[in-house]
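Private note to self, pasted from the team thread so I don't lose it. Backbone tokens:
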């Protein structure tokens, strides 16, 4: 069945949803995006996603496509029109369409597109099994704090990891893991400390990262925010990643090293549970 896609003020069948070839998102990757998860038809942690969207737009001097209230109303409409129970809502804003120029045109209207995609977010089989990752050089630009649609390096990293038989890539710069191809990266050391890279321009400040660290703190888990090496990851007790699309994903293999006997570790498993409960509570649903 064809989805309903939102494009610049219109709700259209996906085959009719079109963007100009002069759109700067297409020509220059001059745009940003957000992915909010949807559980039981409700957006999760969406205010924080919209706050990050506003920050990304501000860093690139792209005009906001509307107020938060206007954007939320459209997001809810897209979810409703597609009867989405569980999955993601993708939202992209570009600077807009203009004659091709390296300067940033000032007086153009931003483009905004939204669509849904069905996905398993909670109670997913791969969360019970865990995934493997391979470390790949991080060849991205230096403003990874901005959630731009320029995702070629991440796509190349994930494909290279896949070609080498792993499920995902963790990217490495100057001897330290930055983050996953589309997620934040964590290890658990042998004294049960959760280690994840500190926030800076080197990584995206994940919305799920923030929620998971809040849950870990509330549950008296130890946290250290610092860079870690691929060797530390290979020798860790546990590893996991976080993203809106896979809130907490246990990792059971890093390069050639099997972690926690090849099964999701207890800390990752606990965080999977805590996140599910928190997300359901936030939308007034029981576990
Ligand atoms: N990606 N780091 C990178 C490079 C990401 O692309 C993402 C999310 C994250 C996690 O951020 P959050 O917890 O806010 O989802 C970290 C989304 C899911 C995507 O591109 O599909």
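Design output:
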């Amino acid at each position: 069945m064809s989805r309903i896609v939102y494009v610049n003020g219109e709700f259209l069948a996906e085959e009719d949803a079109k963007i100009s070839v002069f759109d700067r998102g297409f020509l220059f990757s001059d745009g940003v995006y957000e992915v909010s998860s949807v559980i039981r038809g409700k957006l999760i942690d969406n205010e924080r996603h919209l706050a990050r969207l506003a920050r990304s737009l501000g860093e690139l001097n792209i005009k906001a496509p509307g107020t938060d209230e206007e954007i939320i109303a459209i997001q809810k409409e897209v979810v409703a029109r597609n009867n989405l129970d569980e999955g993601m809502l993708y939202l992209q804003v570009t600077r807009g369409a203009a004659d091709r120029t390296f300067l940033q045109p000032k007086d153009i209207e931003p483009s905004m597109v939204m669509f849904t995609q069905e996905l398993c977010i909670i109670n997913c089989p791969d969360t019970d099994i865990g995934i493997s990752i391979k470390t790949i050089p991080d060849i991205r630009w230096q403003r990874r704090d901005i959630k731009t649609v320029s995702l070629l390096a991440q796509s190349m990293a994930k494909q290279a990891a896949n070609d080498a038989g792993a499920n995902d890539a963790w990217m490495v710069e100057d001897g330290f893991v930055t983050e996953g191809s589309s997620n934040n990266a964590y290890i658990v050391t042998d004294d049960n400390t959760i280690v994840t890279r500190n926030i800076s321009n080197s990584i995206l400040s994940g919305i799920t990262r923030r929620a998971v660290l809040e849950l870990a703190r509330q549950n008296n888990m130890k946290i250290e925010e610092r860079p870690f090496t691929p060797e530390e990851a290979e020798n860790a007790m546990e590893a996991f990643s976080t993203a809106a699309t896979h809130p907490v994903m246990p990792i059971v293999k890093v390069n050639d090293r099997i972690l926690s006997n090849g099964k999701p570790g207890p800390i990752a498993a606990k965080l999977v549970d805590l996140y599910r409960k928190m997300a359901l509570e936030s939308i007034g649903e029981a576990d």
